[in-house]
């Protein structure tokens, strides 16, 4: 959840690469009666409940988001149910099937979900420090004592990625490897860790993975790895289902588009007034669909299969 400023990325080279498809296809996901209820009511469950979906980034994911869910419950008067998907593909399927009302996606997951039919509206992105703009780092990491000094040294190595649909844990790393002259399909042995913290752990242990990638907020927690390269990526969006009734959608946009941690605490959410939450949340800044065109550009240049509908 640690998000930082995003500079422009220019001069993308045309690259013909089909990245590995994410498990559990998303196109045409259905869920029987539940999908019918969603189309009839506009809600994933019912008018008294909002389902909050997240990508499973770390073991602390639910704890990190609980104050925000409590705040949403306070401003909407609805019960907020936590929905953590087993992996990125499962969250995409849930969004396509109308099974989440509010969610925190990665940028790549958002693009993939909407490409496959999910009707989502971006609201904002979280920043963790005053003065920041949305965005965060995808970091290339190696064991602390390694003599590996650059991405060029990743060739022939066992490389930890996070998930095939992870922005900072796969899409940007794959693109950066290509720029370094390394084909992520043939020049390395990819290992998918599933979560950012697990990727960091495996690289630090230097058994399953000799090198790898993860987002900066998880990397900085470890003293077993060091950073050899990093790239800024678009801030992860908070979104709402476009099917929600207009009044509820407006409540969510008003509540989440530009708030600070002090606003949340002032609303009576005591769980927000902790060092743990302050470490992952300072404020939100508005973002829109066009903000994620950079990811779409990289999808086109790499011909990533996850981007295709």
Short characterization:
The protein has 309 residues and is α/β, with parallel strands linked by helices.
Broad structural category:
alpha/beta
Strand order of the largest sheet: 2-1-3-10-4-11
- CATH class label of the largest domain: Alpha Beta
- Fraction of residues in helix: 25-40%
Main pleated sheet: 6 strands, mixed
CATH fold-level label of the largest domain? D-Maltodextrin-Binding Protein, domain 2
Describe the structure.
With 309 residues, the chain is α/β, with parallel strands linked by helices. The protein has two domains: 33-132 and 235-307, Periplasmic binding protein-like II (D-Maltodextrin-Binding Protein, domain 2, 3-Layer(aba) Sandwich), CATH 3.40.190.10; 136-233, 3-Layer(aba) Sandwich (D-Maltodextrin-Binding Protein, domain 2). The protein has eleven helices and eleven strands. The chain is globular, with a radius of gyration of 19 Å. The two termini are 27 Å apart.
Core attributes:
alpha/beta, D-Maltodextrin-Binding Protein, domain 2, 2 domains, 20% strand, 11 strands, 309 residues, 11 helices, 6-stranded mixed beta sheet, 5-stranded mixed beta sheet
Fold topology:
Layout: H1 33-41, E1 49-54, H2 61-76, E2 79-84, H3 88-96, E3 102-104, H4 107-115, E4 120-127, E5 136-143, E6 158-161, H5 167-179, E7 189-192, H6 196-205, E8 211-215, H7 216-219, E9 225-233, E10 237-241, H8 246-256, H9 261-266, H10 275-278, E11 283-286, H11 293-302
Parallel strand pairs: 1-2, 1-3, 6-7, 6-8
Antiparallel strand pairs: 3-10, 4-10, 4-11, 5-8, 5-9
């Amino acid at each position: 959840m640690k998000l930082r400023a995003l500079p422009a990325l220019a001069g993308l080279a045309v690259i013909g690469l089909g990245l590995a498809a994410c498990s559990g296809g998303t196109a045409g996901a259905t869920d029987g009666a539940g999908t019918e209820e969603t189309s009839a009511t506009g809600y994933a469950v019912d008018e008294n409940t909002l389902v909050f979906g997240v990508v499973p980034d770390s073991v602390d994911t639910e704890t990190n988001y609980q104050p925000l869910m409590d705040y949403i419950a306070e401003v909407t008067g609805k019960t907020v149910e936590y929905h953590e998907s087993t992996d990125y593909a499962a969250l995409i399927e849930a969004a396509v099937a109308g099974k989440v009302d509010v969610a925190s996606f990665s940028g790549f997951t958002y693009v993939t979900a909407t490409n496959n039919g999910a009707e989502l509206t971006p609201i904002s992105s979280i920043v963790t420090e005053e003065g920041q703009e949305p965005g965060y780092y995808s970091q290339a990491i190696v064991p602390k004592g390694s003599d590996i000094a650059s991405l060029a040294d990743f060739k022939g190595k066992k490389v930890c990625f996070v998930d095939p649909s992870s922005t900072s844990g796969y899409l940007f790393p794959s693109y950066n490897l290509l720029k370094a002259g390394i084909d992520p399909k043939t020049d390395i042995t990819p290992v998918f860790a599933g979560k950012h913290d697990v990727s960091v752990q495996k690289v630090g242990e230097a058994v399953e993975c000799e090198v790898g990638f993860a987002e900066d907020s998880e990397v900085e927690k470890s003293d077993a790895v060091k950073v050899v390269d990093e790239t800024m990526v678009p801030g992860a969006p908070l979104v709402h289902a476009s099917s929600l009734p207009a009044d509820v959608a407006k409540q969510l946009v008003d509540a989440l588009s530009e708030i600070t941690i002090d606003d949340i605490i002032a609303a009576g959410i005591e769980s927000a007034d902790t060092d743990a939450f302050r470490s992952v949340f300072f404020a939100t800044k508005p973002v829109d669909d066009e903000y994620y065109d950079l990811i779409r550009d990289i999808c086109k240049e790499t011909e990533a299969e996850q981007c295709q509908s």
